[in-house]
Amino acid sequence: MQSPPSSERPERALKSVFTSLPSHISPALAPQSDNADPESDFNLHEPEPRRQPPASLISPAFTPPATPGNATPNPNREPRGIPVDTSKSTEQGPQLVETLPEVFCAVRARIPTVTGSEMFLHLYQNNVDNKEHLAIVFGSAIRSKSLDAPRPGETEMDRMIRGAYVGRLHPGRTNSRIEEIKQDAGVQSAQAAPLVRIHSECYTGETVWSSRCDCGSQLDEAARLMSVPSNARTGGVIIYLRQEGRGIGLGEKLKAYNLQDLGNDTYEANLLLRHPADARSYGLATAMLLDLGVDSCRLLTNNPDKLRAVEGPNREVVVTERVPMIPLAWKTGGKQGVRSEEVEKYLSTKIEKFGHLLSRGE
Ligand SMILES: Nc1nc2c(ncn2[C@@H]2O[C@H](COP(=O)(O)OP(=O)(O)OP(=O)(O)O)[C@@H](O)[C@H]2O)c(=O)[nH]1
Question: What EC number is given for this enzyme (predicted)?
Fold first, then answer.
């Protein structure tokens, strides 16, 4: 069932949630008016404010993404891309940032993974928050423009230490070979659209084994798909955004979990805490993709809001295909992935209330 556009959903849902508030929930939690509370960390109708996030939203200093899973669930049944043309969409989409943030890749390093595949971890800084957002890049042809650009006064050793080199580092190497960087950039522009996943940080699902959601196995599966030969040819990127708990932060997400144990779903729990059902934005992802030379992509997602939001306000990045993100437990008949009563409810809520493009038969 297609749910209403995201911009209409919160208010409508608020009414039904608050008219049926259980007696143990304080009426103080209810919003004071139809508009978002000006004191609130988030406003449903305004673009994300350009200021330092409150302390409660700052994620732990570094939450490393889980290493990719090492088994192939079903190599003969990889999800097939579905062509999309978001420019023809008549539905009201998600709220978009007006201008793209500025991003800057400070450093990258080669990371060999436990599966044997290799990726380059790119650490980004930006002008809208003080978090270290990451791009996990599969394949050597996708390169960051801001990383490769020469920096004043730097030596060849400086360049190699911050990862602005081509090929591989080895003991005794003395040159980052700037000319080859330019050649690589030319090759990149001729390539087909790479597979892209925009992943939002989930400390509970990726690090401390939570079975309330399938975020950890989604991250593993995205990394696995980027390494299969058909995708390895185009290269792949996982943009890892530090917007924990759909943007409400870890502390608030833990409160939401307690509200879920009290009988609310993930959607209602956010509203009871006076947050939007989904407080994320994707302007940083768009800007990071552009910095990586990716102006069209095949996007691995079921989330219709993400599909349009990642393109940016002026369709700076075009999504040519949507590749479904099928839960690993469904795909493998429960042999891999997350299985629990909670994750089933989490997935049902995504479909029924967030309008995710996923059905039980997949
Ligand atoms: N507030 C809140 N956030 C949650 C909950 N469960 C998971 N999350 C967060 O949801 C985010 C994961 O969503 P994603 O997998 O990136 O994206 P999605 O909207 O589910 O869409 P897909 O691309 O189809 O997976 C992470 O930031 C998690 O921390 C929950 O119960 N409440």
Answer: 3.5.4.25
Instruction: Read off the CATH number of the domain in which 91 is found.
Output: 3.40.50.10990
Distance 112 CA to ligand 1 centre (A): 27
Ligand 1, atom 4, lies closest to the CA of 245
72 found inside a domain: no
The one catalytic residue in 129, 184, 278, 305 is 278
Kindly state the average pLDDT of the residues 319-324: 95
Query: How many structural domains does the chain have?
Result: 1
On whether residue 13 sits in a domain, the answer given is no
Is ligand 1 within 6 A of the CB of residue 217? no
Which strands, in side-by-side order, build the sheet including 103-112? 82-83, 318-323, 296-300, 195-200, 236-241, 133-138, 118-126, 103-112
Domain, as residue range, for 326: 87-243+280-354
Q: Ligand 1 centroid to 200 CA: how many Å?
A: 7
Handedness of CA 339, 354, 81, 314 (dihedral sign): negative
Q: What is the DSSP letter of 178?
A: H
Q: List, in sequence order, the alpha helices (H) in 228-249.
A: 229-232
What is the position in ligand 1's atom list of the atom closest to the CA of 354?
A: 19
Residue at 262 is within a domain: no
Would you call 278 a catalytic residue per the annotation?
yes
Residue 296 lies in a domain: yes
What is d(CA 185, CA 148) in angstroms, rounded to the nearest whole number?
10
Q: What is the pLDDT of residues 141-177, one digit of tens each?
A: 899 999 999 999 999 999 999 999 999 999 999 999 8
308 in catalytic set: no
Q: Is the ipTM of this complex over 0.95?
A: yes
Out of 196, 200, 351, mutate this one to test ligand 1's pocket (max ligand atoms within 8 Å of CB): namely: 200
At 38, list the tokens.
């000006």
